[in-house]
User: What shape does this take?
Amino acid sequence: MYQYSLHNRINQACEKNQLSTGDKDQLFYARLIANTAAIHSLYSELYGHHPNGEAGFEELVQTLIQAHRQRTPKLRQKDNTKEKKGNWFLSNEINGMSLYVDRFCGRLADLPSKLPYLKDLGINFLHLMPVFQSPEGESDGGYAVSDFRKVDERFGTLDDLQKLQLRMQQEEMYLMIDIVLNHTSYHHEWAQKAKAGDPVYQDYFYMYDDRTLPDQFDSTMPEIFPESSPGSFTYVKECNKWVMTVFHHYQWDLNYTNPAVFNAMLDNILFYANLGVDILRIDAPAFIWKQLGTTCQNLPQAHMLLQLIRQCVQVAAPGMALLGEAIVAPKEIMKYFGTGLYYGKECEVAYNATQMALQWDALATGDTRVMLAAQHDLLQKPFGCTWLTYTRCHDDIGLGYEDASIIAAGFNAYGHRKFLKDYYSGTHPGSPASGALFSVNPKTQDARISGSLASLCGLERAMEAYDENEIEMSVRKILLMQAQTFFIGGIPMLFYGDEVGYTNDYSYLNDPGKSYDNRWMHRPIINWEKNARAKESGTLEQKIFSATQRLLQIRKSLPVIADKKNLTWLTPHNIHVAGFLRQDQEKRLYCLFNYASRASYLTWYAFKEHGNAPKRLYDHWNDKKLTVGSDYEYLVIDPYSFCILEVIE
Ligand code: GLC
Assistant: This one.
C-alpha cells in the first residue's frame, strides 16, 4: 500500500545521498518506491517493538542505496537483460553442478581452466561450496564462516573469485554461492567479542547465564547432529554463558530478533549480489527464527525474514534470485515459495528434497506408489518459481516425506523407512548399495543416509565383485535417477564426480576434522586421470559421462522442459513406472521411468488419457520412432530404463 510519509522519507534519503531520481538511478528509485511499503511493513512486524527498530529501518534504506551505488554498470545491464527474459531461471537451458573448489581442482584460480570440461558436459551454472573464511577442522565443509567477506586462503582471494565470476559471465555461465545465514563460526569477530564479554555482541547470539532457558528450548527442539553434537546449546567458559548451537558446537546461531543482526547480514547478502552472484543459496533458512516452546524450525518469522530479504534484493540487485535450502517436510518446503500476500514472492527456487528422496525410495522398492502419493503437495508450487532438482548433493539423504504418502501406497511407515535405511546402508540381505547411516538418533531411531550416487546405486559392490551384469545395472540406475531429475522441471544440479561415477571415498576417516561426519564419504577428491577417462571409449567413466552429457543436451533442446508449471502425472497403470507429461501448447513430451529390475509393460492406453491420443512418438533417449498401439498392447521399458517421448503425430 502506498504511503506518502514513506515516500517522503525515501526522497529525503535519496537527496541526502545525492541520488538522481532521473536517468541512471531511475530504475532503482522506482523499485525502491515500489517496495518500500512492503519492506517497512515486514521490518515493523519483526522489529517494531525493538528500541532500535526505527533507526534500523533508516539504516536499512541506506544499505540499499549503498548497494545500488556499488553495483557495477555490467551487473546493472545484466539485471535488465534478465528482467527482459522474465523468470530466467525457469529455462530448460540451465544445467548446474555443485562442487568443492579445493576437492575439484585446488584453488579458485585453477577453476577457469576446468570450465571447458564442465561446458563440454553441458554445465553452465556452478554452485561453489563455501569459499569464505572458515577455520580448518571446525568448518562443517565451509558452513562455519568466520569472515563473510574474506575468501579463505585455502581457496585463494576475493580477487580470484571476482576473476572467475567475470570469466563465467563471458562464457555465459551462471554462479551460485551460499550465504550461511543461520550461524557464524565461533571464530567470527562478533562471536569473539561476545566471548570477551561485550553485551552488544552477546545480543548477536542467543546467550544465557544458566541452563534454565536452554533446557526449555532443548525440550522441544529436535537435534540436528545427535551423534556428533547432541543438544542445541554449548557452554562458553570464557564468558560463563550458554550459547545456542543448533548444528555443531562451533556454529553459533545468530539472533535475528536483533535488527542489527538482520541489517549486517543483509549487507553481506548485497555484497555477494555485487560480486555477480546469479542465485544466492540461503543456507538452512528453516532455522533462522527461534521461539520457546516450538521446534524452532519453519516459524512464520523465518518466512518474514526471507520475504524481507527478497524485497530488498529486488530493489538493489534485481537480477539475483534466492534459493531456499529448506530440507523439511513437503508441506513446509512449499511455504518457502511464499504464502498469502507473498505467494510466489519469497524464494524463487527451493530444493526439491522430497522428490529426491522419493526417487531413492522408488529405486530401493522398485515401486513408484509412494512417489506418486506425494505429488499433490509438490504440484502446488507457484508459477514463476522453480525447483532445484537433484539426486545427490554434499549432504545426506533425509527421508523427510510424509508418513501419509507411505501409508497411502499401502506400506507400514515405520517398516518402510527401516527397510530403506537398511537397504542403503547395505545391511538388508541382497542390497547392492554401499552407504551409511548418518546422524542416527538413539532416542527416535531417526537416521539419514550418506553415500555417493554410484555407491548407493550399487556400483561400488558390483566393481568389487567384478560383476559385469551388476555394473551394467548400477549404471542404468545412475542414469535413471539423473534423467528423472533433468526432466521433471527445475534446475538440475549435478554433484561433482557423479558424472563419471565416483564411488565412496573413505579417506575422511583418517582426518580428525572430518572423521566424525560420514557425509565426507560422498565428497570426492577429483583425480583428473580418472576424469580424463571420460574421453576414452569403453571405459565406465566414458559411459556415464557421455550418457549424462547426452541427457543434458536433450534437456537443452526441448523448451517444453522449461518449468512453466506444465507437468501432469500420468494415471498409474504399472506401479513400477513413474510417468509424466510435459506440455506447452502443441508440444507434448511423455517421460517414463521404470524403477523395476525387470522389463515393465505399460498399456498404450496410458498415452490416451490426456488430450488427443498421439499416433507416433519419437524417443529422444533411445533415438527411435514408435507407433502408439492399441489399448491391449504395451510399451515395454527395459529394467531401470526410461523413455523421453515426444509426440510427433
Ligand atoms: C546446510 C548445509 C549443511 C550444513 C548445515 C549447517 O544444511 O547444506 O552442509 O551442515 O547447513 O550449516
